[in-house]
Records
---
Amino acid sequence: MIKENKKTVFSGVQPSGDLHLGNYLGAILQWAEMQDKYSCIFCVVDYHAITVRQDPAVLRDRIIETAKMYLAAGINPEKSVIFQQSDVSAHAELAWILNCSARIADLNKMTQFKEKAGKNQETVTVGLYDYPVLMAADILLYNTDAVPVGEDQIQHVELCRDLAQRFNRQFGETFKIPELVIKEEAARIMGLDDPAKKMSKSAASPANYIALADKPEEAAKKIIKAVTDSGKEIIFNKDNKPAISNLLTIYSLLSDESIKDLEKRYRGRGYGEFKEDLAEVVKEFLTDFQERLYKIKDSDVKDILRAGAEKVRPIAEETLSRVKERVGIK
Ligand code: TYM
């Protein structure tokens, strides 16, 4: 399973809200595509989720749901490892050690923290502030070569690289420096209600996103109601037509038809017709996805997560042990 000679991919999603098309197209779909070429490790990052308040019973369910989404999206546990972050305690331990070389100035630059904390910078948790360091620990524990993520995580992966390089300089060669992998066209799926903001689990209105668990009929309605731009041409132009460009992106990624072909097909036709067709595409995608999703049993997921943690724990422990030696606590 941890394939010799293959480069290692690591990525994760927080089980903290409704997983949506942005998570799927920006991250999980590319994970599925990478499985044959790489040795892949996909994590349900529950320690990240508790950086904001969670209802314990809901969180417990969401951890299982998130792993099911990975499976329904085509992550194959025979090829890739799926595990729950808190099942491998080395994540928290390495995060602590990295905390002791990460600087306040590093974290003060993180735009996602600033956005999430907003005006509440003094009252949000220390965990939320520190979350990029935990993310760095996740990645570095597995000698990761490549980290496929959406655009909002670029800064965090860059911080991870900086922390690893700094540690290597201070204590000697310890960590492999991971590369960022971005699927450009899918890296920033925007909100359906506001194409100036990204599609987000924590959006104020469910009209912002298509959740992977939305009823297909309801999702279709969200597409019909999605904000459009002025004019009526269906052309891709992020600056002048952000809403239509976003819908074209979603259409193209779900149907495997190029944006150029879609533009040609809808030349001279209005937004109404275009949205009707996209609504159908989304409905079909969700119907198929959910057919797979609802077949997966909780007990099977628990087995997969347990087996996944067992497989990766030795790698994580070996890295942690090397790090402890380097800093002089072992
Ligand atoms: P999270 O849970 O916020 O998002 C999971 C993945 O989905 C991508 N994404 C998007 N992509 C395109 N368009 C969007 N609108 C959109 N919204 C979200 C995110 O970029 C991400 O790839 N900190 C991470 C999870 C994490 C992690 C890691 C990732 C923890 N440790 C180690 C990689 C490696 C997070 O909160 O992602």
---
Amino acid sequence: MRKPLVAGNWKMNLLVGEAIEMIEALKPLVADVDAVDIVVCPTYTALHAVSQALGNSNIALGGQDAYVKENGAYTGAISPQMLMDVGCTWTIIGHSERRQYFKEVNGFLNEKLKFALAAGLRVMFCIGETLEERKSGKMNEILTRHVTEGLRGLAEADFERVAIAYEPVWAIGTGVTATPDQAEEAHIFVRNVVKDQFGGTISEQLRIQYGGSVKPENAAELMAKPNVDGALVGGASLKADSFAAIVRGAL
Ligand code: PEP
């Protein structure tokens, strides 16, 4: 049985005060939830304060990205070690917004993934096709490439600290959600690609989250699918009540 993983990607939202308010509201709403791994990924500037606010709660802290160096002359970058220094145990790597706006490609994302894992973080590695790629029948080719090039060189033990987030780009922040059947179909495809590359045991144990306009109204139905092992949530993770409802949808 794969334990569901539900994470909130706050993107470039919530000032420090707002972030703390959100966490203080969220904690009691999910305090009794043991059967789901819960993660919040605030902006860098709020990480330390959120870490303090989380205390010993059942909510883990994650970064939204991490660079491939520990420290040095890399203006604007944050290292996995720095994320861990403020209490992160997770980071997102390869979000479609990093791919689109920051021109990050599979090879570089593979370096980031390996560097973050070597530092000791757990990673949610995002993959997913654009609408154009889906419409032109290239979805499977793109997903194969994201998995093959993105996860290249990982060792068996690394997979204990990796989850894949399948996030069709056409569903992110658009209000359009993949249907549970569309999500399940893509997750089965991705699991099979992982099986071909890394074997059946790893592919069976790997958690594959769905991301793309997940909300309280559709979360339970999506995560009821056998191959949908949780969610990566953007907009609906900014409010405590909606994020808590999504977490409960995984139960
Ligand atoms: C995301 O940021 O990963 C995401 C899926 O966003 P949203 O839930 O807002 O579509």
